[in-house]
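Tokens for Homoserine dehydrogenase. Go.
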Amino acid sequence: MKPVNIGLLGLGTVGGGTAAVLQNNAAEISRRLGRNLRISAVCDLSAEKAKEICPDAAFVKNPLDLVAREDVDIVVELFGGTGIAKEAVLAALQNGKHVVTANKKLLAEYGNEIFPLAEEKNAVVQFEAAVAGGIPIIKALREGLAANNIKSIAGIINGTSNFILTEMREKGSAFADVLKEAQALGYAEADPTFDIEGHDAGHKITLMSALAFGTPVNFQACYLEGISKLDSRDIKYAEELGYRIKLLGITRKTAKGIELRVHPTLIPESRLLANVNGVMNAVRVNADMVGETLYYGAGAGALPTASAVVADIIDISRLIDADTAHRVPHLAFQPAHVEAQTILPMDEITSSYYLRVQAEDKPGTLGKIAGVLAQNNVSIEALIQKGVIDKTTAEIVILTHSTVEKNIKASIAAIEALDCVETPITMIRMESLHD
Ligand code: HSE
């Protein structure tokens, strides 16, 4: 059989890794696929780099020319971002080319434009590398778990944030110092705000939520809270109480609607997710028939991410000549059954909470705080005075049982209004990960 021709857009970390995987594992890939994969054309800012990495491919300066070439069957978009990457992907689809991309931002923000165009043009868009790097979580959600009603997903899906939280906990390092280290190690995105403020994780959980529940992508509705404001005291207190703080992307189907959120979260240290450290990623999926499954691996890096890119290229190559009606749908459900569903505002989500309050160390203070929580229907799981900060001020940590977020917000506002309490109160959400 004739080889499948690939047009590669971008030779950065993942592009270079993709060329390396295709070259290093060419024989094994051909054993699996029954035909060869060949990079026929490449586009990068540097012609020298292109010649060095892909000596046999045509160098094409303009991405829009590459996506129109006769000798390109699959366009692999590894530019990132939503500028020329979006233009090139849309043009590739208009030309009827199949697309593989690692671009989570592009799909989470413009998927509702890209997937319908692909369907109209009988083209396939695959994006395994967009979520959790080398972990085949898209395949699992779209195919492996297809017999289930998925109930919830919770994932450590930003390696940079997980690395920072791990270093802060294990070494007591300051946030700013570890961020610099993460940048030096090449974990962080070009603009680290995307990592530390939750945008990157938000893009990834948005894509997983759409695949899990058969909805259009809705990044605008995703609640984002990163780790930049976390105090190392809270990491320490959480640990003393038997919890770890992780940046989680969470999506859950409830009777009222879908929860879609990213924020620092206390999780019991006995849970597997609590023990995912450093730059590693892990995703827990809870589904009605199979129960709990967990996917762990490298969420970034040249070769792990390229492993996912090449798996997508292989998938498309297998079905390139097949009947389009029997393809796996882009968002796991048949397009006619992808339905918008309510994404719950944060006030309506349900969670447990960690509160740290600084208050006057005098009789009656605890009673007043506990009274406010009771008035707002918030039940206390544990309450400890962590010590006296100075002669008159104590630090109190409260863990609550599960409640609706608006109740905790009302409680915080009322507690902050007490004369005996200093503002602001620190609030971190807590998940048992049982549902
Ligand atoms: N910057 C991302 C991370 C890399 O830290 O996980 C892959 O999306």
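The pocket of L-homoserine is lined by residues 133, 158-160, 187-189, 195, 200, 299-300 (CB under 6 Å).
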